[in-house]
Amino acid sequence: MSLPIVLVSGWAMPATIMEPLAEALDGDGRASIVQLPGLVWERGKKYDWKQLMNYLDMHLLETPVILVGWSLGGTLASIYASQNPDKVAGLVTLGCNPCFVRNSDWSEAMLPQTFESFYAGMQEDSVATVDQFSLLCSMGNTNRKEVLKTLQSAISRDADLESTILLQLLQLLGASDVRSQLSDIRCPVIHCFGKDDALVPSDTGSRIEKDYPGHKVLMMDGGHCFFLDQSSGAIRQVADQVNRLCNRS
To answer: Given this model, what pLDDT does residue 72 score?
Structure first.
């Protein structure tokens, strides 16, 4: 059978970022995209993982689905899959670290001081910091300039970014630890990483292979937005993996 696909975007990035991947997937209209709060927001709303789970659940019009989550979207998708085994038939994470920030027993992650500096930047100037994030996302791709232009043009420079919600989501990401949730997932899981990701260390993939032998890990050419790289073939590789999950009997 062919299953519906739901793509979940990452922190501070609009749903349009995932459209090239949606177009690369086989089938007409099977792929829908869920945009995380932040650029489209409800003022005064406070978000935690439970609310984000409910937010995602509202967008799953039919189940079971193949969930494909990028970065923070992958973290949310992992938590959702662990708690809703009847609704998720397959999980694909893109540039998603089980622990985004390094801790005492997970060294394959961002340094705490790097994250703290980025968080402080968001408090001081959210627009400039999101621009900086776009630059970091584009690094490592063979089509870096094209990806950076795509990322920056997708975010309106004149938009009144809801920095309060972006900070809430960033705080959730910084404290995230979904290792136990990954252990609970019973559907097929594929983790895709960019070899030159500026935000997720490349050795994260090796650690996941060691700790989760039942999960599949793929290392691809490119950075944090490797799935936007047409020239390297990464976008086709991701699409092929997702389609295999969709069409398995």
So the answer is: 97
